[in-house]
# Entry
Amino acid sequence: MKKTLLKLLPLCAFALFLIIIPKDASAGTVHSASYYEKNDDDEHSTESDSDNINDELEQCGSVTLVSGEKYYLDSTLYLEKGWKINAKKAKIYTTGRIMECNYSIKGYKKLNATVTGGIWRYDGKSGHSLTAIQLSHVNGVTFKNMNIKYCTYQGHTFELIACKNVSIKNCKIRCYGKVKSTSNEEQIQIDIDAPATAPTTGVHNGKCCANITISKCDVVGSRAVCANYTAANGGKYKNHFHKNIKVKNCKLRGKSAEALALFNTTGATVTGNTIINTTPTSRDSYSDGMAITYFGSGASGGKYTIKNNTIKGGRHALLMYSHSSSRFGKTTIRSNKLYCKAGASNALKTASVSKLSASKNKKYKW
# Structure
């Protein structure tokens, strides 16, 4: 009996240590710089929040911020392979780009990084007019549970340039300032790497995005979400196409252009969303609630599923249309509520669809 108790004593002591150890003492937790200023015996005391966070990522591959504390970034945060940022309910302020990764010229760099949580704010009243979070040529990134009010209506909160397997989940995105009546910039941009669309990458190989999933997000912008294309540069990149974009259970609102626009996109799933465009019908195509449109030639096939959405627009609620010889593949449009300012008969318009199944859709004048 005594031998058994002696064996159990070390285990009991270790269990007691785990109970009494402070929660923020775990490896990878970084307090804000103001915390270290009050406790200047800590090794982080003379460094900025950006340095502390980036240093912790480089050393541990992960960092946890403390809920309720305020962090001020004086430089960009960088993501590398396997890195994880858990911002919890910390408040993070900055004026430049929040986050990016190193560009990979040779293809889609395996990243497998995760950013969770955080209340991300511009450090001022005007808002950021460029891109807050920019990734390019990477494979595997997850953003979730983020609350972001950082850009103006002319900026991009997320810009995904030639990326694969990216998930944006349960994020709330809002803008600073007022929308311009002619603005068509989107808060989540799914982009092609071309000089006109992504001038900062320095790669410009025409690569597009694939397997992008946006789910349970609440987004307001000039446009909320857009898969981009370009006819610039002599049309060199016009026949390049994104693949397999999924938008599920989101609330998307466009104030001066389509709430959801999928240009040059082969294969899409749009289910369970509320998609509203309040743009006046006089803005013509920009007033559509949701548009899936081909501009480039050479694409065919792809499966499209559009189900259980509420979509409101001006000229049309939902438009599927090709401006070229490209054709959409098997398309299912079912059980949607479609509201159109131009009248119920204009709520749904499809063209250039190889195989269409449209049923149980309700159309209304809005």
